Amino acid sequence: MIRPCPCGSGLPSWWEHDARGIPLARVCDACIDQKLAAYRPEILTDPAYLADEPIEDDDLKADSARNRGPRRQDDLTASSREGTPETEMQMGTASRRHGWQGSGRALRALASPVGGRPGRSGSSEESECGKEAR
Predict the structure, then answer these.
(1) Kind and range of the H or E element at 24?
(2) pTM value?
(3) Separation CA 84–CA 94 (nearest Å)
(4) Residue 112: CB partners within 8 Å, gap ≥ 6?
(5) Alpha-carbon distance 127 to 116, whole Å?
(6) 24 in Cβ contact with 39 (< 8 Å)
(7) According to DSSP H, which parts of 48-112 are helical?
(8) Which residues pair with 22 in a beta bridge?
(9) Cα 8–chain centre separation
(10) What is the pLDDT along the chain (134 residues), one digit of tens a residue?
């Protein structure tokens, strides 16, 4: 299927490639000279213009290891923990962020293990703190 050129001329367009086959721009007869004028002439004609050594896998690994320093890892893990219900309970931000009303006891009850309130293990014995609270 022939697509019209993005320049707005309405003419059919094609991809213009450099000497190595890398696509440079979508062009038509009306805009080809203008769009290709931005590229150096040797890019269009000389296949050796990229005669540099190819990027080795070891170079890529070294770059990615350099970008993953300890500080950056900490930032990534901190942002992934941010906003979860568990961390909001620990930081005390749940009531402010979600507009919850109530005491700290209610928030602790929400964070308690299934089947009971904090301080109760399921047995009939109560801790000293539990007796004083009543």
Answers:
(1) strand 23-27
(2) 0.33
(3) 9
(4) 118
(5) 14
(6) yes
(7) 57-67, 70-81, 85-91, 94-98, 104-111
(8) none
(9) 35
(10) 788 999 999 899 999 888 778 888 899 999 988 888 888 777 777 666 655 555 455 555 665 555 555 555 555 555 555 555 555 555 555 555 555 555 555 556 555 555 555 555 554 455 555 555 55
User: What residue has token string 């697509």?
Assistant: 3
Question: Cα separation of 73 and 66, whole Å?
Answer: 11
Distance CA 73, CA 97 (A): 26
Structure tokens at 133: 């609270």
Between β-strands 23-27 and 14-17, what pairing exists: parallel, antiparallel or unpaired?
A: antiparallel
Tell me the residue type at 58.
Answer: D
Phi-psi region of 123 (alpha: psi -120 to 50; beta: other; left: phi over 0): beta
SS3 26: strand
* Residue whose tokens read 């320049």: 7
Q: List the domain boundaries for the chain.
A: 1-46
Sequence letter at residue 23: P
